Amino acid sequence: MTQTEQDTGTRDARIARARTARIAVPRSEHAEFPGADRRPDPLALLARQDADRVPELLPIRYGRMAASPLAYFRGAALPAAADLAATPRTGVVVQASGDAHLANFGLFASAGRRLVFDFADFDETLPAPWEWDVKRLAASFEVAGRENAHPTAQRRRTVLAAVEAYRRAMQDFAHRTSLEIHHAGADAETLRAVAAHPPAPAGRHRLDRSAGRSPVRDDAGVLHRYTEIRDGRLRLAARPPLLVPVSRLTGDGDPATLEQRLGEMFSRYRQLLGSERRAPLDRYRLADVARSVVGVSGAGTRCWLALLVGPDDGDALFLQLKEAVPSVLQSCTGTTVRGESGRRVVTGQRLLQAVGDRYLGWVRATGFEGRTRDFYVRRVRDGRGVTDVTKMTPETLRAYARLCGWTLARAHARTGDPLVIAAYLGSGPAFAEAVREFAVACADQNERDHSALCSAIRNGHVTAVSGR
Question: Which is it for the CA torsion 145, 147, 149, 151, positive or negative?
Fold first, then answer.
């Protein structure tokens, strides 16, 4: 059911739909977490994903996931989706993030150089039940709280803060017009006010003092991080295995063939952009491409960092060409996605993200290991930064939870029916308390799954390298 089909009924009819959903799936049932007899082996699910990834990068993936229970949680998107699919469903669908854990949010510089807070990753986006995103988010805060050795009572307050922020925001969006929701303020100043509810003592809940004023990282910082002067020219730095210039890679044919293939892929991407978005890009030329390893769940997929240089010294633009594979939610929802996986990611990002990326696009490429593969292209942002969640105090983590809850509600309100969701949630804490129970059970299972991975590494069943 599309958003238009969901919200064209009368207000009473939509509220009645929410009440019907409450009867079918009482809010208390969202505490349910599938038992061991209903869970597929998470390591088998991860191995299934490995089959189509770059083999030499898989040890990096598992080394990152083994680093801690929180790192494992971030990388286990497919096992998480399988768990969520075994829980009760309200039947109310939104464009879901598909992987709405706390590390997939961040601060970014908008086109006007103002910082905004929003989603940072869209690889798994797909139409799905709204409550899946909420549960994934809540569980991530329970896992992070344990990682930070926060007391049980503090973790409880943090998880409830995330879910209650979602509920309060959805109640607000239920009374707004569609255009008001679409243009809901996403700047960091507005979101800091959300984080500070209820009011906090002076100096508390401050995530970043520069928020809303200036980017936390400028173009010069990105330039220094990724480049070097080689043979008298600006090139991408060689920092294997995490960043390897294409000229030094083997596989997919000789380096010259691979470089030509990537150049052709980039040209097709340019052609698919609208003329108004292509115009500024046409002032840059492709200077270098390197294979990069990003994230935890994405490690092992094909990802390229492209360096484009303009007519002036120091005028550089960085684009990421990232492989798009089917969402982990597809096998759980039965959703059929038409067209390229790259198009799915780009469409989902445009629906969910309040401030868009003008260079966002997709392309289908042939010749990689003799196969057709999908990619999406985005700018490497120059203004991302939030305090490391593993170093947050209970108060700061709770403020961050409110930011994430509000942001998730706005995304769901843009693509679903906020009135139906708000009416289902109601005005009390029943849903939040149930999701908190789910989060605790999920975190318990996550620790067992992380331990199983570490055991498989020690026994030689899984190969991993640490510190990368």
Answer: positive
Number of domains in the chain: 2
* CA dist., res. 150 & res. 297, Å (int): 25
* 202-205-209 Cα angle (round to 5): 85
Place of tokens 């939610």: 329
465: in domain: no
Helices 430-458 and 77-85: crossing angle in degrees, nearest 10, is 130
Residue span of the structural domain in which 334 resides: 219-379
Enter the DSSP assignment of 142: H
Which structure tokens are listed for 82?
């399988």
289-299 in b/e form (b: 16+ CB < 10 A) is bbbbbbbbbbb
In sequence order, the 6+-apart residues with CB closer than 8 A to the CB of 372 are: 364, 365, 366
Rounded Cα distance between 161 and 255, Å, is 51
CA nearest to 93, candidates 410, 351, 417: 417
Per-residue model confidence (pLDDT) at position 314: 74
Nearest residue to 89 (alpha-carbon basis) of 334, 328, 325, 326: 334
Q: What is the DSSP letter of 299?
A: B
pTM (predicted TM-score): 0.91
179 sits in which H/E element: helix 178-182
Q: Which residue has the tokens 């949010």?
A: 105
Residues 162 and 242 in one domain: no
Express each pLDDT in 217-259 by its tens digit: 445 567 778 899 888 889 999 999 999 999 888 655 567 888 8
What lies within 8 Å, CB to CB, of 109 at 6+ separation is 115, 116, 215, 381, 382, 383
Residue 386 lies in a domain: no
- Tens of pLDDT, residue by residue over 264-317, are 899 999 988 888 889 989 999 999 999 999 889 999 999 999 999 998 867 899
Residues 401/167, Cβ–Cβ less than 8 Å = no
Whether the Cβ atoms of residue 124 and residue 100 lie closer than 8 Å to each other: no
Q: Give the side-chain half-sphere CA count within 13 A for 467.
A: 1
Both structure tokens of 254 = 């000789």
User: Based on the domain organization, do 36 and 169 belong to the same domain?
Assistant: yes
Say yes or no: 337 and 401 in one domain.
no
For residue 387, being part of any structural domain is answered with no
Give the CB-side neighbour count of residue 63, counting CA atoms within 13 A. 14
428 and 361, same domain (yes or no):
no
pLDDT per residue over 343-365, tens digit each? 999 999 999 998 888 899 999 98
400 in the same domain as 371: no
Alpha-helical runs (H) found in 227-311:
255-272, 275-281
Question: Residue 24: pLDDT above 90?
Answer: yes
